[in-house]
Specification:
Radius of gyration: 27 Å
Helix content: 10-25%
Number of helices: 9
Number of strands: 22
Strand content: 15-25%
Largest sheet: 6 strands, antiparallel
């Protein structure tokens, strides 16, 4: 609404920062690529996922597209198989409708229908300058796939042992075929030499959804509209997440390279050398000025453009003028990053113990593409240098930077740890555990994982003694069942002891107990860290 404050003035007491809200729509006052090209005489069409506003005033036809074939509201239709307005369970959708999407033959996949409709539009405008915006619903969730394709991929294996999800492979094949049909349509109409073709992805692969730990699907019952889709996914992919971005760290929704490094391919025969590559750092904000530059179309004089044209790089006639590239991400896991040459700094707006190492992470991507070694502590000057670039970026863009919440009350750092037969109190630099009976332990249901774990315990005790980790998975009650206990020893002394325990959890973890020798003498704990099989944090408590 008019006058809405996108930086709230207040927040609940358990929220440390006043966080800026993200506009969930594309403001109609912003001149889009479609509008700029339409003003220059191009015919314009959008096909597929829009997701830039849920109400009519924000849809593609209000942003310069003469033809708009899309779901409304987005992100997608109830079903990826025709009829698209009928849910996978066969019931008509009551909440979603299909916008301007038209059904194809029963059982046809939406990727194929999109492609057919786009080619039909292309044929009708082949004798005019045109801009075809083609945003596929594949490979986006809910991963409704062609099972015959999936079955073929299920018989294959990745010799590297990295990729293993046949559902994602099936949908990628569907995408490949779709783009092949579009390119063939250009060839047939002798438009290839005069058409710029750009393939680009908006974010890194999804490596968090529909795995065993995804809370969104824990309560999917037969009455849920996604039940049939989930059953099909589980049949072929089990508990696998959709993608593996190896060797990149993390994926969609994260500031690591797995979330932001994506494919970009540009084809323009006779103008862009076939098979050429570049290490130039570019992103989605650069597509608008680049396309206009390649076409010789001037942007509106009053428009401020954040990106830069990389046309000179594509044409082999020059290099980028930009010194650094920024990614502003004030939601999900809020932060901002800067990339300058081989160096990348991630600045997080708040501490996230158990997930990330402090609020500054510095990486040299040339030496460490997997972002496994944070150099921030070893290179404070480089951190300050890149931090200054971020500060200048925030000033220049007038970004709404998070502010401290005046009502914030810091939580108990021991939240989630429940003492049994003992008392636990936070003291300077530690959690002090004192026995009040036999078999003292700290219990927690906050370690959410479905596979092997590693416990990294930093503790000390004057008397020391034996301890153990004990756990139970979902659907089970008996903590004493075989294979659910791992012992360890805490050496005696005043020095901090670093203890590593391999915990062979098999199934979704429900409760874990950390037994301590507190009956001999009080135990002080500096930190408890749970890591997955890849060494990535699952849950952490730190008192240092």
């Amino acid at each position: 609404p008019p006058g809405h404050a996108f930086l709230p003035q207040k927040a609940p007491a358990n929220v440390p920062l006043l966080m800026p809200e993200s506009k969930n729509y594309l403001d109609p006052s912003i001149v889009t690529l479609a509008e700029a090209l339409r003003a220059a005489g191009y015919r314009t069409a959008h096909f597929g996922k829009w997701h830039l506003g849920l109400t009519a005033e924000y849809r593609p036809d209000r942003h310069g597209f003469e033809t708009a074939w899309h779901c409304a509201p987005d992100p997608g239709p109830p079903n990826y198989f025709s009829p698209y307005g009928v849910k996978p369970d066969g019931k008509p959708s009551s909440k979603n409708h299909v916008g301007t999407i038209t059904d194809g033959p029963p059982g046809e996949h939406i990727t194929d229908r999109m492609t057919t409709e786009a080619i039909r539009w292309l044929e009708a405008h082949a004798d005019q300058p045109f801009f075809l915006n083609f945003w596929l619903y594949s490979v986006h969730g809910p991963w409704q796939h062609k099972e015959d394709y999936t079955a073929a991929f299920a018989r294959k294996t990745d010799p590297r042992g990295k990729q293993g999800n046949p559902v994602m492979a099936s949908m990628l094949r569907n995408v490949d075929e779709s783009l092949g049909r579009l390119l063939a349509a250009l060839d047939e109409r002798k438009l290839t030499e005069n058409t710029i073709f750009i393939f680009y992805s908006d974010n890194g692969g999804n490596n968090h959804s529909w795995g065993a730990d995804d809370p969104k699907i824990r309560n999917v019952t037969p009455s849920h509209p996604l039940y049939e889709t989930l059953q099909s996914y589980r049949k072929w992919a089990g508990n696998q997440v959709p993608t593996n971005n190896d060797p990149l760290r993390e994926g969609k929704g994260k500031l690591y390279e797995g979330g932001v490094r994506v494919p970009l391919m540009v084809r323009w025969p006779g103008k862009i050398a076939a098979g050429s590559t570049s290490g130039a750092v570019v992103g989605c904000i650069d597509l608008y000025p680049t396309i206009l530059d390649l076409l010789g179309v001037a942007p509106p004089k009053e428009q401020k453009i954040d990106g830069v044209s990389f046309a000179p790089v594509l044409l082999g006639k020059g290099s980028l003028t930009r010194d650094a590239y920024f990614i502003w991400f004030p939601h999900l896991e809020p932060g901002v990053s800067v990339r300058q040459g081989d160096w990348k700094l991630i600045r997080r707006f708040q501490e996230m113990p158990g997930k990330y190492e402090g609020t500054r992470e510095l990486f040299n991507l040339k030496d460490d593409i997997g972002e496994s070694k944070n150099l921030a502590a070893a290179m404070p000057e480089k951190v300050r240098e890149l931090d200054a670039l971020i500060d200048a970026f925030v000033r220049d863009t007038r970004a709404l930077y998070p502010r401290p919440n005046p009502a914030y009350k810091a939580p108990d750092p021991a939240t989630g740890l429940v003492p049994k037969s003992c008392k636990a109190a936070v003291v300077p630099g530690a959690l002090r555990v004192e026995a009040e009976g036999q078999a003292s332990f700290l219990g927690t249901a906050a370690v959410k994982h479905a596979g092997p774990l590693t416990l990294k315990l930093r503790a000390r005790s004057a008397a020391g003694g034996p301890g153990r980790v004990q756990w139970v998975v979902q659907g089970k009650e008996d903590f004493n069942a075989p294979g659910q206990t791992v012992p360890f020893d805490l050496p005696a002394g005043e020095k901090w002891q670093d203890i590593t325990v391999t915990v062979p959890v098999n199934g979704p973890l429900r409760i874990v107990r950390l037994y301590l020798p507190a009956d001999r003498s009080p135990v002080e704990i500096a930190s408890i860290r749970w890591l997955d099989a890849a060494g990535k944090p699952v849950r952490e408590w730190t008192f240092e």
